[in-house]
Amino acid sequence: MSEPDPMPVLITYATSRGSTEEVAERIASRLHADGFAVDCRPVDHVYSVDNYKAVIIGSAIHHARWLLDAERFLDVECMGLQTKPLWSFSLGSASAGTPGWIRGKVAKREQRRVERMIISKVPKVREHRLFAGKDDGRAWSSPVRGMYRCMGGRFGDFRDWDAIDKWADAIAKEMKAEGV
Ligand SMILES: Cc1cc2nc3c(=O)[nH]c(=O)nc-3n(C[C@H](O)[C@H](O)[C@H](O)COP(=O)(O)O)c2cc1C
């Protein structure tokens, strides 16, 4: 008789333009290569966290907040999430694309705000990591783009895949050490 599948790790995400999904998939493939069963899907395709042994959730940041679907997921699943190892991440371009003279301040404020929101819903979350995202500027009108550039702002793909891989590897190491 074959062994039952081990409980997978859930990697779930909210995205509007796909870059957070690509990061979630990268984390999932990294964990899979490390021997974990994984399930990677958008937050609105997760029916319950009960069948997962650990959860990693990520969201794009829009207007200094997580996307609504991701916040709603934390609200709905907060009881289940309290009983599992939970890591969280955000993708935002402020930390890389915002004009240099305000970049650090804006990114720090945004990170604190998102962390406060997550902790208020799931106090036992282990970590929140802010990664630089991807913003090609297409969501903004041409005058807004021009003004942003004049102020020193940049558009582009700022994702640091090395940092993302390292974070996934650290989570895998932590889970192995704890026998998750
Ligand atoms: C309408 C809009 C608002 C945004 N607001 C922010 C923001 O407040 N802070 C930030 O760091 N990035 C912001 N961004 C950048 C995105 O969060 C970032 O590019 C992210 O990688 C997008 O993820 P997605 O491709 O999964 O939707 C915004 C992007 C858009 C299109």
Automatic annotation (TrEMBL):
It comes from the Eukaryota. PROSITE patterns: FLAVODOXIN_LIKE. One of its GO terms (molecular function) is menaquinone-dependent protoporphyrinogen oxidase activity. InterPro entries: Flavodoxin/NO_synth (IPR008254), Flavodoxin_dom (IPR026816), Flavoprotein-like_sf (IPR029039), Protoporphyrinogen_IX_DH (IPR052200). Residues 9-180 form the Flavodoxin-like domain. Pfam families: Flavodoxin_5. GO terms for biological process: heme biosynthetic process. PANTHER family: PROTOPORPHYRINOGEN IX DEHYDROGENASE [MENAQUINONE], PROTOPORPHYRINOGEN IX DEHYDROGENASE [QUINONE]. This is Flavodoxin-like domain-containing protein. It comes from Knufia peltigerae.
